[in-house]
Fold each of these.
Amino acid sequence: MVYIKSLNKRIWPFYLSPKENELFTSWVCRLSNAHGVKPIVFTKIYFDLKGSFWNRDIDILAKKNLIEISENHSPLEKEQLKNLFLSRYESIIFQQTNGTSLIVLS
């Protein structure tokens, strides 16, 4: 990792900023591509996550550990990272999340 003195943290060496309205998994896939590894390898290395991580809808809720790791290894702030998840649309296009799915507005 690359130490950035002004941020006082070590960020991923091939860091890419999230695109506007990009979801977390899309951003992680672009980061992994920039690092020259598959997303499953990237998440195992940097997030210490097992393969089952990719077997669920990761974009629904902003999991605390994903936010913390991403905040520690990128120049992004917590709120910017939370905006990469579908939970930011709660009460706008769906009522709420129950942790694994969305309850759609009728």
Amino acid sequence: IQEAEITADAAVVAKHACGDLTDGIIEKWAASESPLLVIMTCCQDKAADQPARYGLEQSEWTELCKASAKTNSAKDKDRSEGMRAMLRLDNARVDYLKRLGFEAKLTTTDKFPKGDVIVARRKKKV
């Protein structure tokens, strides 16, 4: 998908976009004319060594990415820490999309870890 052309009539759907693939897709979609982005974030710990995005400081980015790996932990305390980190990262992505002028929302689930879904749309031209 990093090399694919996103056309104006294409909806972008990405399931389990691991690491910074989520961020690359968001940036590529935002620069396109595609009307819809649906992306399930995943394995954010793999982005820990990447440059910080969305206005987060590098140290916070790295810490949140690493902590997000704990979503799979059997320990409730660790899993909760991982879910909070994942939520913080995904909310930063949604806020970024909103700052760019898109409609964006985050849907979460407690049914399984790493199930957050970001949906973004271009606002209808009036």
